[in-house]
Amino acid sequence: MNDLQGKVVIVTGGAAGIGRASALRFAGAGARVVVADRDEDAARAVAAGIVEAGGEALGLRVDVSRDEDCAAMVDATQRHFGGLDIAFNNAGVSGRIARTEDQGLDNWHAVLGVNLTGVFQCMVHELRAMKAHGGVIVNTASVAGVKGAPYSAAYCASKHGVIGLTRAAAKEYGKYGIRINAVCPGYIRTAMADEIAAGSAQGSSEALVAAAALRRSADPEEVAELVVWLSSAKASFVTGAHYVVDGGLSA
To answer: What are the CA-CA distances from residue 71 to residues 75, 120, 122 (Å)?
Structure first.
């Protein structure tokens, strides 16, 4: 039996890339999906596609750097679908590609505001919604969360922070039946990954591919498969972990 059938799932950053692929994969498994993104039209378009395919979905405009948006997202999810079972906190930004001394406080605050504070704010409201019955949270970190990422100090720091936040919360909320894990993508074929690749130590997406053990990049759907697995009963004893999906780039 498909244990995701009828589950209610939030996907932030759900309008494109890994978020979109995950929203579609959850819907394909029978889950009811809230597609949340700063791009409201794109979020609604993904949700509409799910509905047209016979699924259930809701598209919402959400800026995760705004706590009121995070609270409203969880509230709207509960009102529309009657609860919340799974959350994939995936929204993120790449930030400025520059030496650390040139990153700038404006960039630092903007990147951490989405990538780390945004995940924290979403989790606060998601955890409160899940405490009574349990649930699953998956956060998007990055291969830059487990190694250094030259010229991306703010991004690198934010993704290291996501892993720490994930592990701390997993220790706290296991007793409530809530599992919390992180995924750490490497070079995935998305617009944001291309931005990061251009400013990486390797200098280009082609060089990043050459540096990976598998000598290729990945499709967003390959990360989505891991996200869905972590959200399923097949991963029932997995919490507080971070999974690197980088084709051996960081090996």
So the answer is: 6, 12, 7
